[in-house]
Amino acid sequence: MSTTTQPMQLTPLAPTISTLTGRSTTTDRAPARTPATAAAAASAAASDGAAATATAGARTGASTRDPVRIAARLSPLLGLGISIALVWWGLQTGVLQSLENLQAFITSLGAWGPVAFLIASTASVIFPIVPGGLLVIAGPVLFGPVEGTVYNFVAVSTGSLLNFLIARHVGLALIERIFPAKTVEKFLGWTRSNHFTRAFALAIALPVAPDDLLCYIAGTTRMRWRTFVLIILLCKPWALIAYGLGVSALILRYLPW
Question: Would the N or C end of the chain have less CB density within 10 A of its end CB?
Answer without folding.
Answer: N
